[in-house]
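Colleagues,

Please find the record for the two-part complex below.
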Amino acid sequence: MNSSSPTAMHDKTIAQLSASLAAGEFSSEELTRVFLARIEQFNPGLNAFITVTAEPALAQARAADQRRRQGEAGPLAGVPIAHKDIFCTNGVRTSCGSRMLDRFIAPYDATVVEKLNAAGVVMLGKTNMDEFAMGSSNETSFYGPVRNPWDLDAVPGGSSGGSAAAVAARLTPGATGTDTGGSIRQPAALCGITGIKPTYGRVSRWGMIAYASSLDQGGPMARTAEDCALLLGAMAGFDPRDSTSVDRPVPDYVALLDQPLAGLKIGLPKEYFGEGLDSEVARVVEAAIAEYRKLGAETVDISLPNSQLAIPAYYVIAPAECSSNLARFDGVRYGHRCENPKDLLDLYTRSRAEGFGAEVTRRILVGTFALSAGYYDAYYLKAQQIRRLISDDFRRAFAQVDVIAGPTSPTVAFNIGEKVDDPITMYLSDIYTIAVNLAGLPGLSLPVGFVGQRPVGLQLIGNYFAEDRLLNVAHRYQQVTDWHQRVPAGF
Amino acid sequence: MSLGPAEVAKIAHLARLAIREKDAPAYARNLSAILDLVAQMNAVDTTGVAPMAHPLDMAQRLRADEVAEPNQRKHFQAIAPRVEAGLYLVPKVIE
């Protein structure tokens, strides 16, 4: 590390690293070695990575340096990132945080991985996560909990907890995540970073291990909205291999970051500021909204009257889809197989019982029950009707306002072990994020302050395909505040 | 809605999951609590509301019926628990 440099390499944002690499201040290989050394130093304490891919990373870095020398490089060439261990990476273990896939070497790259590779990024490794993305604390991982860099007693959130902790601790400048009910936004909030869940269909789900297919969506996690814009631009786009991918051009998110906010109408749903919201979190979120008024935005009180139905509907739809998706893990073609199965049924039932942890088992059971004969109308069909009501709430709101703002999570990060035995309490930490997935809308979380030493996130919700506006609205805030530049002590 | 250990065993069989007997009461408690949470949906009259299966109400896209993927059997067999002669081995199914 060059001590005369004003900002250490690992403290630079992706945009700054890109400029430094383009100016030849350092090579991608040097940069990659810095992050690999930081991972070696800090990961034993954080457990943010499941797999570190040092040698392939250095090979990718040297290839990116070569591309830069030949003048063929785009802005992300040579920039290190990490992938949530839910994205298939050819030749590299892809565990999905589960014993079931502990020894699964993915035979191909997910589209997101392929697209980022084509942009020249360097993969440092695969990040820890709740098992099969089912959790809000990263405690359901087969590989153990991740610690929050801001307070090692606290959870980082989940399910993309390893990605969030790794970015916050400067072990990587950016990472991929996935979000089915808040799994990008909630850990981003709890770790004081920026993350965006795009519109359903914006980012390909091909090669992203499925949890609830009508809700799952991948997206970037980084320190700034600008960095998320750079990453999303490379990740998004039509993919014929994903039948739910939307064929629609990807805007230049970076070019649209600086639009002025004057006249922007921000809706404040009264349901997001009521009972259940921690008063200290409310105070920090209201200060952030006051900052937006100073930037020229107008705030409008709105109502999303069916908000309280989002969690009940989600805990039918997501488990139902998960019970169907996870039926593929049968111990036959890949994944965990039990020892000495006595017959085929024993092979299935024991392989699955040994391969899945308690939360995954719970959700498979709930989903199986909801889809079983005689219960379909009362559960799945009813939940899909509620889903329509929730989506209609947002449609009416977006006739009035440009974006919706509120807290990302009702509390700051809770302690490791605090909620692990009480699934229902754990589910409530996604109360403000789940409705966004049910409606398929884009949502972003950005850091806006602290309660004690634990970060608070502001959630911005946009209309369909308004990722550009969300990134712009977050970026303008980050131009006049420095919450996103805070560094956890000791990192 | 309250489920007991016997109902959990039945659901577990449908899901092809071997739940240990000693774990069944805890799963029964958790599942009952989740179903109570879910029951909040019943407070709303949804008569005539069209169910929403897709966030963008898109129809599934179809593609031409053409071979698009190469045969990667060897590659895929390499990660299987037990294979022989290009086949996936399972316990004997027919006596």
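The CA atoms of residues 200 and 440 of chain A lie 5 Å apart.

Comments are welcome before we finalize the supplementary table.
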